[in-house]
Amino acid sequence: IFQDRFGFGERPAIVVVDFAYGWTDEAYAGGTARLDEPVARTAELIEAGRAKNIPIIYTTSPYRPHQKLFKTAADQSDGFRAWDERACEIDERVKPEPRDLIIQKDSASAFHGSHLAGYLVQHAIDTVLITGCSTSACIRATATDAKSYRFRPVIVRECVGDRSPVAHVFTLADIQARFSDVVSLEETLQYLDGV
User: 83 pLDDT band (50/70/90 cuts)?
Assistant: First the structure.
């Protein structure tokens, strides 16, 4: 903490946090075009990871039509698309393949209440390459929990985003000092090339 980097380990996995349409499509109230660039950069990282047979894990929210977490068609009046099953689907630009793991989560962290830690241990993973949204919430929580579980947390800078540019920049600066490495996509791709 406040001293040095965790560094890359020997066996990485890529965790794509919540790049579902409800967040990446601005037709939804929670969506923003600010995620277009992080989604595109994450697609590059995924391609490199697939070439090395690195496990890729996706998270999204479960679709529960009767749970009033988001506005439904019945109470939609603000011009945004109602929260629907599509909102929970992973964005086509970073589409999972059958061999990938998709976790439905109810909390900010990809770890909390899920079997992610067990899955990573089963695959002897020591390094978690974190991508997705939102930097100030789910990314921060995932990185913090990755550290707590004794994985090497690495946030790939160009592969994360937030609706708020201020929250995004502040969170990356704050979390790098305490809970995770924050590295460039270029450095990450170089690392994967050597795996």
Answer: confident
